[in-house]
Amino acid sequence: MALEIITGKKSDFSFTNEHMLRGHEQEPIARRLYEEINFVDVTNGGFFDCGEYGDSPDGLIGDDGIIEIKSVTAPVHYATLERESFDPTYKWQLIGHLDCTGRNWVDFVSYCSDFPEGGQLIVNRLYRKNHEEDINQLRMRRAQFLHFIQFTKIE
Description:
single chain; 43% helix; 7 strands; Lambda Exonuclease, Chain A; 5 helices; two-stranded antiparallel ribbon; 5-stranded mixed beta sheet; alpha+beta
């Protein structure tokens, strides 16, 4: 990302692995299950253009919510179940969703088709009001990053 900003050119390289492919395949299933369980409609997350950065959540719920879906392996899903909270690997992505979209909450959804029905979907909600300090920290770090790369020269 930094190199793209510095050079002004999109990278020719992209990365895909089996986990990403599984996520693309199973995300619509997880979304439908989430909608059925919560009696809501999830609309396309789209892209939020915030000037020098942007955000693309997996979906929007009403005027206040966001959904981020991860289709994971059984051990990862089980760890989320045991933790009774979202996977900390995704904390800053979730905080970024709250920051850029201005919405009040984000549901982290862990989906695993290998689990029995009733246990395939785990939902953990983060509220903006509980993460204002994290949002401010992200904004500060983002500003530092953008300032740093603005003055980086590649010869």
